[in-house]
Amino acid sequence: MVTIKDVAREAGVSVATVSRVWNDADFVSPETRQRVAEVAARLGYSPHGAARSLITRTTFALGVLLPDLYGEFFSEIIRGIDHVVRAAGYHILVSSSHESKDEIDAALRSMRGRVDGMIIMSSDLEAQRTLRTLQGSFPVVLLNGDAESKAFDTITIENHEGARAMTRHLVARGHRRIAMIAGPERNHDAAERLRGYRTTLTENRIELDESLVVQGDFSELSGHLAVTQLLALESRPTAIFAANDSMAIGALSALRENDLRVPHDMAVAGFDDIPLARYMNPPLSTVHVDISQLGARAAALLLLSLQKGIRPHEHMQLSTTLVIRASCGGAVS
Amino acid sequence: MVTIKDVAREAGVSVATVSRVWNDADFVSPETRQRVAEVAARLGYSPHGAARSLITRTTFALGVLLPDLYGEFFSEIIRGIDHVVRAAGYHILVSSSHESKDEIDAALRSMRGRVDGMIIMSSDLEAQRTLRTLQGSFPVVLLNGDAESKAFDTITIENHEGARAMTRHLVARGHRRIAMIAGPERNHDAAERLRGYRTTLTENRIELDESLVVQGDFSELSGHLAVTQLLALESRPTAIFAANDSMAIGALSALRENDLRVPHDMAVAGFDDIPLARYMNPPLSTVHVDISQLGARAAALLLLSLQKGIRPHEHMQLSTTLVIRASCGGAVS
DNA sequence: TCGATTACTGAAATCGTTTACAGCGCTCTC
DNA sequence: GAGAGCGCTGTAAACGATTTCAGTAATCGA
What we know:
2 copies of one chain form a homodimer. By secondary structure, chain A is an alpha/beta fold.
């Protein structure tokens, strides 16, 4: 491996000069600059990242901790982050499967000295509490977590509003028995979406029937299973609101297997508006969230912290919009 | 920031001892070990990654260069890589939008000293040639590239076989006018898939009609556009084979907009079998590729290189299987 | 002609670790 | 009782860069 010393020796200068040339510093004569540049190119020199970040105390890398990597939701987030981060010359160090406190802890430790900041998405409320311990080591942006974590920048989706809008729409279309396929119990987003659903029903004086709320885990399979469960009910719902699109998609396939027509026999709605929602047949009504924007905003916030140093923590809310497609019967007439 | 020195001072030992405790080295008395561990925990010490990898010459990180991050294909690859890599205690440093030679070059430079090896996916054939220059700096696995790059480990999909199988199936179902929505011109996978399509037609003595081959770019939109183009033909095809699923999905939506029924009026097939293919309506016939496996194998190969040092380069072929669903009319009767 | 200024370059300290080597106090052996 | 061996610990040299500070030669002003 060719180091700065090799270049220095070969060019007949000191390592300091090579460093200056590489970093476009002042006070290097044009001739020296040229000669060093040539030698560096010939030897194929590029500085050693670790050595560099040891002394400069910056790595130009951001850590991204995700609970999972499965499905379009996460890939969109990464895409959003990468897009912003790349423009600023940063890279991202990804690590997934971090739900529990211990795993997050371990990941954080192992990233010390390798990243300048972190974007952490852990919907598990418990895990977030423990994060507080790491205050001060480096900037952190919390994604989709508990916005009450005043110790960090946070970005959350308007889950409650979104769920209310969709539930209201279903009610407006005349549905009274609306089922909800809920997300993971300890997930913050899921809880908020469920809450929005409940509030709206109550507001519309529709009695809450707990048998219509089925637990899911955000996966397609769980959506499928939830429908089987709902169809076994004595008094079936006329509409199904899934807490995310993946489960809605699973629901659609289960309904098809049971020869139920959507939206005629059963209206279906999802949440997130992942790219493929529109390609479903029928196209899926859902609550649109600009997922990649979620990542992009988080990245931007983090970069801001890095540039500006300490500053008051921000708590962003990403708004949602109702996207009515065919799966719930279309717009209210 | 708390360093090893702080811990050493606080515990009344030398930094060497702290290091030994941290790395579970021998020859530390139980009492010292305990005391140091306590102090480290109290101070919240964790070693500085850059400093550590500077001296140990390992980073426990692998670089992943992708052309793009859009869509399920890439997220599946990352998932496959992450899964394997995590088990070995590694992280991944992701960087996307690297198609051209220069971009790849820049990314490689910026990753020197930050990763122990790289997985590079660049279907652009030109870019691959230039990669040769970097031989020897660190192990590299080429994904889906030109398997002839004898200088690296490579993993490729059996594109040719897969395309042949699907085309054969369409022929067997009685189709004679089969259109192909091809992928990007300079993409290796795309080229091979197109070649498989052509070989099969020739083998079956079906005349190649170049107006039936439409250029796409692997995006849903391009699939949509391609169909519009095909439908404008005087003599329409009866089947459409898209070089990847995304384009097939775009094709399906275009056909629906034109009130053509699939598979009755037009058979459609894709390639890749991305997770959502089965959820299409009608479910999409496609050539199954275990995408996450592609990433997983690449990661495994890379880890092997890191452990074993120099070894002969491997050239893996990932096999494909035909997945016949409703969109092409089902199995041959 | 001399001192000051300017333009450039080099020596050396530094970042936070790991690790080879040396040292120290014991115990054991002959 | 001297030397060897053992168990533990500390000193100091790396790793590859950046950066401060000092030094040198050339130019300038008086």
